[in-house]
Design brief:
Blueprint (H helix, E strand, L loop, with lengths): L2 H27 L3 H9 L9 H13 L1 H11 L9 H16 L5 H15 L4 H20 L6
Helix pairs in contact: 1-2, 1-3, 1-5, 4-5, 5-6, 5-7, 6-7
Length: 150
């Protein structure tokens, strides 16, 4: 992997970390996209993140949060209302990427979600996130007519 590609992957992961924080904050405070963007772009270490990705995904997820919650409810093995805000934020990102970001391989979406859940989520939440996103991945593949495991 070239160092430029590695830097890009780190910037994308950093953007996801900021997204988790912003979406968590949104759930607790109700801050809108403009307020969240303002707060996060003012952080010193935000420059290391993929800022375009952060902006695009944050707005889209907040706009679609009800739909994303419905998808969680469909694929969840436990009550969607039992999710903590961190797991919900990670699932929102993963579900959005699976459905709307074909530039991100499905395995990367799920792996990133699992790793971020291990880092930020409750103990063993990563298993729930992995299973839910895998079920969603299969549904996306079925609806798009693809059978790739990529």
């Amino acid at each position: 992997m070239t160092s430029l590609r590695a830097a890009g992957l780190k910037a994308r992961r950093r953007a996801r970390e900021f997204l988790i924080q912003a979406l968590y904050q949104h759930q607790l405070t109700g801050h809108d996209v403009a307020e969240l963007r303002r707060q996060f772009t003012e952080r010193d270490n935000f420059a290391a993140a993929d800022q375009q990705y952060f902006d695009a995904v944050l707005g889209a997820i907040i706009e679609r949060q009800d739909s994303l919650n419905q998808q969680i409810a469909v694929h969840a093995t436990r009550g969607e209302d039992q999710l903590d805000p961190v797991a919900r934020a990670i699932l929102w990102i993963g579900l959005f990427e699976l459905a709307e970001r074909p530039d991100v391989p499905e395995r990367v979406v799920i792996n990133e979600a699992v790793e971020l859940t291990k880092r930020f989520g409750n103990t063993d939440s990563h298993r729930f996130v992995n299973a839910l996103l895998d079920r969603a991945r299969r549904e996306v593949q079925a609806s798009s007519g693809t059978s790739s495991d990529a």
